[in-house]
Amino acid sequence: MTRFLLGLILGVILSFIVFYFVFEVHHDKWFKCKEREITKFRDLFNLSCKWISLMLDGGSVSKNVRELNYNNVCIYGMQVLGRLVWRDLESSGINVVCGMDRDANILFSDKQILLPGDKLEDVGVIIVTAVASYDEIKSSLELYYSVPIISLKSFVS
Question: Which among 68, 78, 119, 129 is placed 20 to 30 Å from 62, CA to CA?
Fold first, then answer.
């Protein structure tokens, strides 16, 4: 009985030590990942609110794009926000030449979606809809393209 009790106590102590070690090693990475996700969704929510406010005031992303004389556009970030921007621009007669996304190979779309670095023709501006990662995306795209790379935030504010 004492052997069993000693084994049980030792097992519990070892379990706590292993749990503590695993938690100490990985908790910073886990919390940073969650913090990035929270920031991403907060930025998306704030941008969506500004976009709705712009529309309620009679404006639109397409009007702001047109005012800057961008007639041929590429949209970077082809998730929900990117597809909505595409619809807004197309419905106002602005030519959306293509979309672009780092996951272009796995996205399903009837539109042309390129990978970053693919050849772009006849594009006046790249609008980045992934606003939480705008700075990194802009730096990366500037290596390949010489057209203005502008955050969607600029067209909504």
Answer: 119
Domain that holds residue 90: 59-156
3-state secondary structure the chain: CHHHHHHHHHHHHHHHHHHHHHHHHHHHHHHHHHHHHHHHHHHHHHHHHHHHHHHHCCCCHHHHHHHCCCCEEEEECCCHHHHHHHHHHHHCCCEEEEEECCCHHHCCCCCCEECCCCCCCCCCEEEECCHHHHHHHHHHHHCCCCCCEEEHHHHHC
- Give Cα 117 distance to the centre of its chain: 17
Q: Could you tell me if residue 85 is inside a domain?
A: yes
Q: What is the number of structural domains in the chain? A: 1
pLDDT in tens, the chain (157 residues): 555 555 556 555 655 555 555 555 555 665 666 777 888 888 888 888 888 888 888 888 989 999 999 999 999 998 888 999 999 999 999 999 999 988 777 766 777 888 898 998 889 999 999 988 899 999 999 999 999 999 999 998 8
Based on its alpha-carbon atoms, the radius of gyration of the chain, rounded to whole angstroms, reads: 24
